[in-house]
Amino acid sequence: MQEIFVPKGQVNQIFLADGTRIWINSETRLTLPSVFAPNERVVKLNGEAFFEVAKDKNRPFKVEVKGQQIKVFGTSFNVRAYDNSNKIETTLETGSIQLKVGNQTTMLKPGEQSLFNKTEKQLIVSKVEASTFSSWKDGRFEFQNEDLVEVFKVVQRWYDVDISYDETTFRGMHFSGEIKRNNDVNHF
């Protein structure tokens, strides 16, 4: 097994031998075998990554993330599952994916997002503008009615800064906007 860790303030892109392309966001750990097994392709994620998975009917591609398994059918999608967040977001751009959490299984269609609350063990699927959730890989942050506490976490990860705030004060407040990722933190 090999492990790729991307530190705060960086993004990495890797190309796998099967044709799959993965963007790995800051403060993310991706674990994968040196060579995939003959019957499946499995990676483990802790953090955020965008996947463009090459189709292979004989070897399904699976992403394991904090008790959730994503089975991929030649697809592009984003997964956000950081340790300091109570949720796992899986957002599908193209293709289809199957999510399995415990004994719950659901399929996502393009433009849908699953939101798994780790505390309540609840999985909710909703329609979203998928490109908003993968904008980080294209060099910008795009927020549409995002919880302000989650925005603070994104800023902290990318700019490697500490933001002091009282979560109870900001919980429930939302923010919308877009900024280029390589702008100075003072632009926020």
What would you say this structure looks like, in words?
It is built from 3 helices and 15 strands. By secondary structure, the chain is mostly beta strands. The protein has helices at 130-133, 148-159, 167-170; strands spanning 2-6, 12-15, 21-24, 28-32, 41-52, 61-65, 68-72, 76-81, 87-94, 97-101, 104-108, 112-117, 122-127, 140-147, 174-180. The strands form 2 sheets. Strands 1, 2, 3, 4, 5, 6, 7, 8, 9, 10, 11, 12 and 13 form a 13-stranded mixed sheet that branches. Helices cover 11% and strands 48% of the residues. It is globular. The mean pLDDT is 91.
List keywords for this structure.
188 residues; mainly beta; 13-stranded mixed beta sheet; 11% helix
Short description:
The chain has 188 residues and is mainly β. Helix content is 11%, strand content 48%.
Order of helices and strands: EEEEEEEEEEEEEHEHHE
Straight-line N-to-C gap = 39 Å
Main pleated sheet: 13 strands, mixed
Shape: globular
> How would you describe the oligomerization state of the chains in this entry?
single chain
